[in-house]
Amino acid sequence: MRDMAEMLSELRVADASGAEPIDPAVVEADVARGRRALVGRRRRLVGSGVVAVAATAVMAVTVSMGGQSGSGTQSEARSTAAGRQSSVRVELASYHGAQPAGFEVRTVPQGWKVVSSTPYAFLAVPPGTDTSTIVARGAAAQGGFDRGIAVTLTGDAQFPANEQPEKVNVDGRTGELGATQDKRAMWLMWSDAAGHRLQVQVPDKLGLTKQQIVNFADGVTATGKATTGKG
């Protein structure tokens, strides 16, 4: 926009040339309109800047929140994974305790306690198991077979009719590994070199894999005192 000096100079030139003089009121009105236009333009520019800044701030907040949300999801995933890794993992360890009367074993799950070692049954349970109701005789079956890893003679036990047990190798001999009737435990049955028909029972909730069950059975031997449990 032209300044006042330039406009007055033009007025003087116009007056000197003999042209009709311009009314000063008209000039002042034009200058006022020009100033108002300039102020309005500056306001629009400033307003646009504020909107741009605000929009940038909103985008920054959105990105930040999105990042936090993603981090939360990753954190939950890590927490879930950590929870899975922190689950109890069963490892077999060499057994150095007193050997049971009916069954000898080479390994037991690490940290587990042997609570039955009779001619009728061998039973080891995880740490923290309530053993107050586990009977010492025979089948310990009335109070313990659903809590630990058990060894007995098979007796008349048979796999359910609808179960197709898997053939496995137990210390060089063929065994059968399959689910019990209620599907809550695994049975491993095999015959040893002396003709004993042995059975290992492991509830699924204890976390042993099929291979661990077989590895445990590899170290099981029935003695001459092994007897089929009663009731």
TrEMBL record:
Residues 66-85 are annotated as: Disordered. The chain crosses the membrane at residues 45-65. Keywords: Membrane, Transmembrane, Transmembrane helix. Residues 66-75 have a biased composition (Low complexity). Residues 76-85 have a biased composition (Polar residues). This is DUF4245 domain-containing protein. It comes from Actinacidiphila acididurans.
